[in-house]
Write a structure and sequence with these properties.
The complex is a heterodimer of chains A (483) and B (111). Chain A contains 18 helices and 14 strands. Chain A is of the alpha+beta class and 483 residues long. In chain A, the strands form 4 sheets. Chain A has a 6-stranded mixed sheet with strand order 2-1-10-11-7-6, with no helix packed on it. Chain A has a 4-stranded mixed sheet with strand order 5-8-9-12. A two-stranded antiparallel ribbon of chain A has the order 3-4. In chain A, helix 1 crosses helix 2, helix 5 packs antiparallel against helix 7 and helix 9 packs antiparallel against helix 10. The radius of gyration of chain A is 24 Å and the shape is globular. The model of chain A has no long low-confidence stretch (mean pLDDT 97). The two termini of chain B are 26 Å apart. Chain B is α/β, with parallel strands linked by helices. Chain B has a 4-stranded parallel sheet with strand order 2-1-3-4, with helices on one face. Chain B has a single domain, classed as 3-Layer(aba) Sandwich (Rossmann fold), CATH 3.40.50.2300. The N terminus of chain B is likely disordered. At the A-B interface, helix 3 and helix 4 of A face strand 1 of B.
Chain lengths: 483, 111
């Protein structure tokens, strides 16, 4: 397994084509806006080497029998699934942000099943290719960006009917040694911190869309791939003097639009090619795993709850009964998030491929809660923190020879607490609820792994309403059998 | 005989006693596991040495779990006796038990 330092060094060897604020980023690893997100991924390496975390952070490869980082593991039991849930919470609670590595893990687990099933139907060799690729990922302890979301263009039209055919990533040319693809993937979390990028289709498809039914993996710096960094609220605070106004002084996340402009993919890196009837399965399996992964938000919630209790103490308000009750409510909501992820893992099962798969109904319930509860937890945090979290002057004012003395004096709360510490805690709450980390904690909670309606559709498909009706009728004395 | 069994001997154990330390993963610990282990090492420094659970000549393995679930799989350490700390009170009890009887039979511990 790589150390965090080795991971950082490996990123420096990549030749990524990254743009930010209209300019090419020459040094991605040390860019002050990107760097905190690299730190968060590095934590997934660092924790794997710490005895107090290794039980969750590592696993035994079912291919080689070697100890590996769990982010490169294919789940071999429900215990593995539960440990994945716990690992996600752990890392959220350590970084207070998106640590970006779950999406590749979820892509690989989904592909371990879908490639097996395609082979069973068509006699192809995708699973063998995939397992060889997986071993390469495990041996080199790589970060993989799992890329699913296409730009999608007109949402009312399938891929082949789009006015611009590139709205969904597709094959444009077939060669003897592979294929050439064009298109893009949007909202790619951790893309420029990744060694590899794994492409999957974004929706179920029909035969007319078979040119879009492709899955493959490439090095993240393959020719023709360009990354355009997404903006985050308050992102340029990372360019300012000091670090108070950043909120989280160590970690962060990032997203990017990834453009594939006529990119070559060799055959041995293709895991699905025009098997349009398996596109929906791959999407559903990836999405279900990824909906489980949102246990990370319980970890970030741990940080926000800790910050909120602390600011209540810094404000001198911690003994108020309504404050205590709101903290209890925040914990109740946060643990409910965790419950959903643990439940879908514990109720997982073994698929034909041997991979263990989550209970999909419960995974969707988990994620549906995630689309709501972080917003309420954030509302309560802002309620307790007070308006100062959005009216506080800057760190430069705090350090100003002219006005700094008044900032120190008038923003003092509890006399035992330094004004600077109070400012730092307020900025962390701001960061989590409306700053750079709110990208991950709120809007990503809403739309990541599918928007709320996607989960509601899955829930409606999987509950047995007829059985519920049958029991209700029996208990109230209706004896007529509708069937 | 595997390396875990190699530590099994007859007669009173020699001090400091060699005990493997295994943490749970710490997803939502209810107390500071690492601080408690430091307290154990500090208070029992002359009586117990905590080592990797894969070390040789261990007498037992001490699992330090952050909550009562204690999700570490104890079968991994067979045939060694496994003791479990799931709270600060358990850590205190472990310290007190060893201090009161440094040669106590770890296999008979109710932790």
């Amino acid at each position: 397994m790589k150390t965090a330092a080795e991971y950082e060094a490996s990123l420096r060897e990549l030749n990524l084509n990254v743009y930010q604020f209209g300019k090419k980023v020459e040094n991605v690893v040390d860019d002050p806006i990107i760097r905190p997100s690299m730190n968060a991924v590095a934590a997934t390496y660092d924790c794997a080497h710490k005895p107090e975390y290794e039980d969750l952070m590592t696993a035994t490869s079912h291919i080689t029998g070697k100890k590996i980082n769990r982010f490169t593991h294919i789940h071999q039991s429900t215990e593995d699934l539960v440990k994945k849930t716990k690992m996600c919470r752990l890392l959220g609670s350590i970084t207070g942000c998106c640590f970006q590595r779950c999406v590749g893990m979820d892509a690989m687990n989904a592909l371990s099943m879908t490639t097996f099933d395609i082979d069973a139907k068509y006699g192809t060799e995708y699973n063998k290719r995939f397992l060889a690729y997986l071993e390469f990922v495990q041996e080199n302890d790589l970060v993989c960006d799992g890329a699913m979301t296409d730009p999608k263009g007109d949402r009312g039209l399938p891929p082949h009917k789009q006015a611009d055919p590139d709205m969904f990533l597709h094959v444009v040319k077939e060669r003897e040694d592979g294929i050439v693809v064009r298109g893009a993937k949007a909202h790619q979390t951790g893309a420029v911190n990744s060694h590899e990028i794994i492409i999957m289709p974004t929706i179920s498809m029909r035969e007319e869309d078979k040119d879009y039914a492709i899955s493959f993996a490439l090095p993240s710096d393959a020719d023709g791939i360009t990354y355009i960094m997404g903006r985050q609220s308050c992102d340029t605070r990372k360019l300012e003097n000091g670090n108070i106004d950043r909120g989280n002084v160590l970690y962060g996340g990032h997203e990017a639009l990834v453009v594939f402009e006529d990119v070559f993919v060799p055959w041995d890196r293709l895991f699905m090619y025009k098997e349009w009837d398996f596109a929906g399965q791959l999407v559903e399996q990836f999405a279900s795993y990824h909906r489980q992964s949102y246990a990370c938000k319980a970890g970030v919630g741990d940080v926000l709850i800790g910050a909120t209790q602390t600011i209540a103490e810094f404000n001198g308000a911690q003994k108020a009964s309504h404050v205590k009750d709101k903290i209890i409510e925040m914990n109740h909501l946060n643990e409910t998030l965790f419950c959903g992820s643990v439940a879908c893992a514990a109720e997982g099962h073994k698929e034909q491929s041997g991979t263990y798969y989550v209970n999909t109904l419960l995974a969707n319930v988990c994620k549906q809660n995630v689309t709501r509860f972080p917003y309420e937890i954030s509302r309560l945090a802002q309620d307790i923190a007070g308006g100062l979290m959005v009216t506080l002057p800057s760190e430069d004012d705090y350090r100003s020879p002219e006005v700094g003395k008044w900032v120190k004096k008038y923003f003092k709360g509890n006399a035992e607490v330094a004004t600077e510490d109070r400012m730092r805690m307020l900025r962390l709450i701001e960061n989590l609820t409306l700053g750079t980390a709110a990208v991950g904690y709120l809007t990503e909670s809403m739309h990541g792994a599918g928007s709320p309606q996607a989960q509601r559709i899955m829930i409606s498909r999987q509950v047995n309403l007829k059985q519920k009706q049958k029991v209700a009728k029996r208990l109230c004395g209706i004896t007529k059998d509708d069937e | 005989m595997n390396k875990l069994q190699a530590g099994a001997t007859n007669g009173p154990p020699s001090l400091p006693r060699r005990i493997g330390l295994k943490y749970c993963g710490g997803c939502a610990p209810r107390y500071d596991r690492v601080a408690q282990v430091k307290a154990i090492e500090r208070e029992l420094h002359d009586l117990v040495t905590l080592l990797s659970p894969g070390a040789e000549r261990l007498e037992a393995v001490l699992i330090v779990a952050g909550c009562p679930t204690c999700c570490v799989e104890p079968r991994d350490f067979q045939p060694l006796p496994v003791l479990r700390i799931r709270s600060e009170a358990d850590a205190r009890r472990f310290i007190d038990d060893i201090r009161s009887d440094p040669s106590r039979d770890l296999a008979g511990s109710t932790l």
